[in-house]
Amino acid sequence: MNLEKELYNDTCEDESDETDNDEEYESSELDETEESEDEESEDESEESEEEDEDNDISNDKIIDKPSNSTKNDMDLLLDLDFTSVSMGIVNSKWKRASAMASSMNSYEILSFNQTGNLSIKAIFTRSPSLFSNTMVSIDLEIFSSSIDDNSKINLEPIDDAKNTSGPINVNILSKTIHKANIGINFENPVKVSKWKCIWEHEGKKNEFIVEISPPLGEQVEAIEISKVQFDSEASKLTGMYYNKVPVNLGEWTSLDIYHQCNCKLVLGTNDYFAAETIANKQLLLLKFDVNEKNVEVFSENVLFGNLFSSYIQTWKNDSK
């Protein structure tokens, strides 16, 4: 009995040991499984964080792109030079007035006698120039009597191009008048603007030199001024700035004067006229005295005033 009891106890102990071992093994496997799951969870979390970081970087890039693009565009805009190619602007203390009458004259600067089939006339528009407020606006009327419809005219300033609107090109398509507008800053009353005219027609190329010089009456623009201002400014223009021209214009009207000079009658008067030079915005005041048969000239530009006084003396020879 004792022997059987001992064997039974040993067997129970062995079974207990095996059970304990099985439990330890299962517990170990469970721990390993949990650790594996934790590692996988950590790996997935790290991968998720990396993906989030990548997405953030990607989003940052997407957001930055417009910013960089905008910055580049702004840099380009800042680098651009918007300075006008045309000449500088001269400010005037006086308000420019519309021309009271158009010029009645056109001036042929290239004739059929010179070219055979080509004629160019200059007309001073008295309108503000589109190129600069210091330039005289000039319409060119170009006419070719040639039957060749493929001729071309090129006009370019020979020198002092900066004081002009630049070269122009005109295609002659038919036997009609073709028009083009140019601007010239004459700077002083005796300046002559020289241009080269290249005429391509019938397979040939001809060159001519043309000169443009406006009358003094086309080198000024009408201004708004009151009688009080007129008298005040005239009182300052004495000595070399003043001339009295003996001339009998008793039968002339304001319109007759407007045709000769781009000026304006001062409001409230019958014989005060005001203008300023286009190039330099210098005052020109005219006071007509019919009874004394003279014209008083007040000019901020001494040379212009002297030349204009001589110009007035030619008016009496013009038929009205």
| Oligomer description | single chain
> What is the overall shape?
elongated
Which architecture of the largest domain does the CATH hierarchy give at level 2? Sandwich
CATH topology group of the largest domain: Immunoglobulin-like
The amount of beta strand, in percent, is: 25-35%
Nearest-angstrom radius of gyration? 47 Å
The total of helices stands at: 5
Order of helices and strands: HEEHEEEEEEEEHEHEEEEH
Whole-number average pLDDT?
Answer: 81
The CATH class assignment of the largest domain is Mainly Beta
Q: N- to C-terminal separation?
A: 167 Å
Unreliable runs, pLDDT <50, ≥5 residues? Answer: 1-8, 57-67, 80-86
Largest sheet report: 7 strands, antiparallel
Total strand segments: 15
Q: What structural class is derived from the secondary structure elements? A: alpha+beta
Q: Could you explain how this protein is built, in words?
A:
The protein is α+β, with helices and mostly antiparallel strands and 320 residues long. It has three domains: 47 residues; 109 residues, Immunoglobulin-like, CATH 2.60.40; 100 residues, TATA-Binding Protein (2-Layer Sandwich). The chain has five helices and 15 strands. The strands form three sheets. Strands 1, 10, 11, 12, 13, 14 and 15 form a seven-stranded antiparallel beta sheet that branches. Strands 2-3-4-7 form a four-stranded antiparallel beta sheet. A hairpin with a 6-residue loop joins strand 12 and strand 13. The N terminus is likely disordered.
